[in-house]
Write a structure and sequence with these properties.
Length: 179
Amino acid sequence: MDVSEAIRKRSTVRQFRNGSLPDDVLDRIFEAARWAPSPFNTQPWEFVIIRDKETLRAISKYARYSGYLAEAPMAIAVIVPPVNSKFSWVESIGEPRFAAAMAVQNMMLAAWEMGIGTCWVSIEREKVREILDVPKTHFVLTVMRLGYPEVMPTGHEDNFRKKIEDSISYEKYGKKVNK
Ligand SMILES: Cc1cc2nc3c(=O)[nH]c(=O)nc-3n(C[C@H](O)[C@H](O)[C@H](O)COP(=O)(O)O)c2cc1C
């Protein structure tokens, strides 16, 4: 599968078959994370692999619209550690978090290529931080659930997304005419 196809066909998956992913498959997903861009190549991402049902259930109580989390075979919490203080200005404007989100996108596409579904879960970060023993200095970006889909999606219809013209301006924000 090429990158364009993975980008176009990937869909969020919320229902999974039982069974955690084998380690070699997880390795490929993490390898994709490794190659995401980051400010000054700080690589501000850490991961907690969660397979324990009790932990998944505990986190699902703090997931905004994701009761299904408890049913997922596994999840990966994405943690943003503080970066070297020499880059603190970059941190102060939030850049490490965006880099970690890019790592997540890489992971989603690598997973998709192997027939594995993913779902970004929005969480109450402070609660999840406590459940996972994440230090206060670190930011919990998301808990991404993943696994083999109950039903493999075939990709969204084109009209599932707004038209790109609606998002593009020329030279100044809101100037819709290219001249
Ligand atoms: C920042 C972010 C937060 C999201 N939060 C949730 C969530 O809490 N629960 C959920 O089921 N899906 C969540 N999603 C997945 C979106 O609902 C999904 O990406 C969107 O509906 C578009 O569908 P698609 O991913 O299949 O293209 C989130 C996605 C992003 C990028």
